[in-house]
Here is the input.
Amino acid sequence: MKPPTQDSTAESINHGGRMAGKTVIISGGARGMGAAYADQIVQEGGRVIIGDILLEQGRELAEYLGPAARFVRLDVTKEDHWHEAVASASKYFGPLTGLVNNAGILVHERLDMTTPDQWQRTIDVNQKGVFLGMRAAAAAMRASGGGSIVNISSTAGIVGFTDCFSYVASKWAVRGMTKAAALELAGDGIRVNSVHPGDTMTDMIAGDIASSGAVTTHDQIPLGRYAAPLEIAQLVLFLLSDESSYISGAEHIIDGAVTAGTSLS
Ligand code: NAD
Here is the structure.
């Protein structure tokens, strides 16, 4: 299966080995933005462990990307799966240098309609999954002499949105955990940052449009369109690479100016 970065836009990007020597785990990497990150890491000379619960799609993607990519079964809510993913990284590629905590789910319910089960599932995947991922990867990165962790939050981790109460809660938690981890792991040479994309055209958003229609419309976005996965991937690659060697504990908003304020015109 082709990742969403393999389109005509991707051809204009100059690939130059920015990820040479890096080994990165991507959770939720079988499709969507995670697949775009995997593709770009390989294009830039790095190696990638794609972890997901979508077994067939993940295996097909790894096969498409070639020997620098491997797929592992990874349910981010399960601690033993994380240990297996970290072990696979060192078994196939060597010391772990990067982690993208990308797996996420979006439950479309407002506060008064969110059930405790929906709440718990969202927190388990979006928040506990990031905690378990950082904990497992940090131990391996410490042994590797350092690394970079990128936690995928959302604009829903910067401001509030209606109709996705548990998602907003989980994405604010990711932003806070990122800062606490950045402080605790700095002494080990591990940088931790959060990325906050606005609406980006993936299956998650396509599903939303089909089921509820509750997404930002183009005229609510100052730049006038959704992001492409490749645009988010460029930021994530920068944060994984040594080009961002002094950046840690920071939140990186990439949303076409949606959260910049209110336009009066
Ligand atoms: P997507 O639904 O296409 O991909 C999410 C991936 O996570 C899927 O491959 C899915 O199988 C995987 N996943 C779900 N539960 C999992 C689990 N328990 N263990 C392992 N993997 C699991 O969505 P996407 O748009 O590519 O989203 C990727 C990330 O970006 C998510 O964290 C999402 O919240 C965030 N995000 C997306 C947008 C957007 O507009 N698409 C905006 C802001 C933030």
User: Anything to note?
Assistant: The two ends are 43 Å apart (CA to CA). The pocket of nicotinamide-adenine-dinucleotide is lined by residues 27-28, 30-34, 52-54, 74-77, 102-105, 125, 152, 154, 197, 199-200, 202-205 (CB under 6 Å). Residues 8-12 have pLDDT under 50 and may be disordered.
